[in-house]
Structure formats: C-alpha cells, structure tokens
Design a protein that fits this description.
This protein is about 10% helix and about 35% strand. With about 280 residues, it is mainly beta.
Length: about 280
C-alpha cells in the first residue's frame, strides 16, 4: 500500500536511516508457503544520462517514454544530468543546474559522460561486458528482462510533512527467491515535469525554451550506494526486511512533483534486483 501520511515532529537535517529484519514470511497461504496470488513483476530501472545542452539527448528521452508506454508499470525511469552538457551557463538559456552529487558519483563510476551522451544503464547490468547502453538499444535490453520473474518486491510508504518539508520513507522488502549475496538499498529522489530550456539539434533554432525535463535525479536520501539491507549475505525466500530514511527537501525543489525511487541491488556487482517508485504527495 502506498499512502501519504503527515507526521509530526522535526527531523534532523541531513540523513538518518536504519534497517531491520522482520521475522517470518511477508504473506503465507494455508500451507505456510509464500502467497503468490498477488501479481508481482520485475521492475526495470533505466537511467538516462543526459544534459540540457546535449542536442541529441531529447531522442533518448523519447525512447525512454516509448519504453514506459510499452511496459506500463514496469519501468522506473531516471534522468541523470552529468558532464559537460549539464554544466550551467552564467547567463542565457542554460543557467539551471540539474547535476547532483549522486549523479556525479554514478558518472564517475560508470564513465557515461566520457562515453558520449546520451546513453544509459539498464538495471546496471553489463551487456557484453559493458554496462553503458546506447539509447537505441534500451528497448531490446529491457525486453530481455521484463518477463523474468521478480526476485523481490519493494513496498514503499512515504510520510511527508509539507510545512517542515520533512520526508520519511519506509520500505518493506519481500524476498521471493533465495538470494546469496550482500544486498544494498538506496533511496533516490527524482523531480518530474521541470520546465526549462533544452537544446535539440533536430530543430531550428536549436533551443526548446519550454522543454519538460522528466524524472530528474535530485539526490539520494542515504548515499549513492545506499546502505546494507541487513548484515547477512543469505536471504531466504518468503522473508521480509525493512529499511527507512529521512530527508529534508530543499526549498527550490517542487515537492508536488517529487518521487522516491528505491533501488535494491547486489553490493559488489551493483546489479539491480528490484526497483520501485512512489510520489511523496498524492
């Protein structure tokens, strides 16, 4: 259940987080085995590395939107502004800065801007030994993954105090297949529908003044690489674990368009096991 609740009390500035193991399976049938009657699917995280002065980047955004429409409810999109093309100018059309510490760290780790924008990551999986995927291949790579049964589900519950701009997110992670690995969970914040100029080489003049930037990565609530889901390295099917984090929303972010994106991934390979998205204000 994804609901909005208003909570009282001040949260400390910065980030607080915790993880707890919940005993027993998240749901069982009469025979004591996990209840699979509720349909669950594998969600695919597609990270679009972009920049507002990248004239070819609108094509990648269009490709991502088409994939979202092709697999409704299964695609978790992120627009990550990085590199030279994301740098703001001192005047003119491109004074906005949509870069983030989290995006910069991801770019440094994977080398997306060096490879030439636009490009992206699909569940941070290496295809042919390379995690960077050109946007023209996003659809075919996503098609390989969407029909696979999920290994876990994530249920997100945001609690947001609009007056204090204080956000708390709690996540219940249900393990569906036995996993033997160290798992981390990261909570990212994305802002949708930011209207701001974008360069587009297909047009003359090449600047779209009122371009809508979608799913813009703003930062992380618990670090770029998140925190361990638990101290263990083995997770039995049917078990559940919980994690939470708190954050104070900066005044210049539009909280009515903010989403929490939860990413569950293998700590060493970084491969995404499951992702989920929830809007903080419904």
């Amino acid at each position: 259940m994804k609901t909005r609740a208003v909570f009282l009390g001040l949260f400390f500035l910065g980030v607080l987080q915790s993880c707890d193991i919940v005993d027993g399976p998240y749901s069982t049938n009469a025979g004591g085995t996990p209840d699979t009657t509720e349909q669950v699917v594998r969600k695919i995280l597609i990270e679009d590395f972009t920049g507002h002065q990248c004239g070819n980047c609108p094509r990648a955004a269009e490709a991502l939107k088409a994939i979202e429409e092709l697999y409704p409810g299964q695609i978790i999109p992120l627009g990550i502004h990085v590199g030279f093309f994301a740098e703001p100018t001192s005047s003119g059309n491109y004074t906005a800065d949509y870069r983030s510490e989290t995006g910069n760290e991801l770019d440094q780790f994977y080398g997306n801007s060096i490879a030439g924008l636009p490009n992206g990551l699909i569940n941070r999986i290496s295809f042919d030994s390379n995690p960077i995927v050109q946007y023209t291949d996003w659809s075919s790579k996503a098609a390989q993954l969407v029909s696979l049964p999920p290994d876990a589900t994530i249920d997100l519950n945001p609690q947001y105090n609009e007056a204090l701009r204080s956000l708390q997110i709690s996540a219940d992670v249900a393990i569906l297949t036995t996993l033997s690995d160290s798992l981390h969970i990261a909570f990212y914040l994305s802002e949708d529908n930011i209207v701001s100029p974008q360069k587009d080489y297909s047009l003359t003049p090449s600047t779209i003044v009122d371009y809508t930037h979608r799913h813009v990565l703003r930062g992380s609530m618990n670090g770029t690489w998140g925190l361990p889901l638990s101290t263990g390295t083995s997770f039995a099917a049917g078990s559940t674990l919980s994690s939470n984090a708190t954050f104070t929303i900066p005044a210049n972010w539009n909280d009515s368009n903010l989403h929490v994106v939860a990413i569950l991934f293998r700590a060493i390979s970084k491969e995404v096991i499951q992702a989920e998205d929830v809007k903080i204000i419904n």
